[in-house]
Amino acid sequence: MRLTTKGRYAVTAMLDLAYHSQTKPVTLTDIATRQTISLSYLEQLFARLRKAGMVKGVRGPGGGYTLSRNARDINVADIIEAVDEPVDSTKCGGKSNCHNDQPCITHDLWMGLSEQIRAYLKQISLGQLLERELVSEVAKRQGKQVEQVIGIQSLQERKSA
Known about the structure:
Layout lengths: L4 H16 L7 H8 L3 H13 L3 E4 L5 E4 L8 H7 L24 H16 L3 H5 L2 H28 L1
Antiparallel strand pairs: 1-2
């Protein structure tokens, strides 16, 4: 399966958002910092996620993003598809033109694998991922690391002022 960084980053960002937006909206800057993803790349991904109705923006001070529906109602496959990332294991992108404009000898095998992967990812919701102990531990650790970085930056700014 060819899952590029676009799909991986979208799922990572959405899981970060699902975890951290339980109390308040989350800025893309916060997600970018915690997950070491380019802010401009996140902006592109969130434009697509917003268009797909998975996130909503909150304007003003204290604004940012929240999930547009319950985390249990958003599955991983839908996130990947929302950012135009195909879940496909075939060489031809499922077009059946892998060998001289005809299906190759293993086309059905790879199509079956793609269907299995898609079905597996459809079964996993953000809510289910949030229930995993490791997800919670990592999210807390990343949050603390960001707070430390912000604290150091604030201290440096005060010293230089």
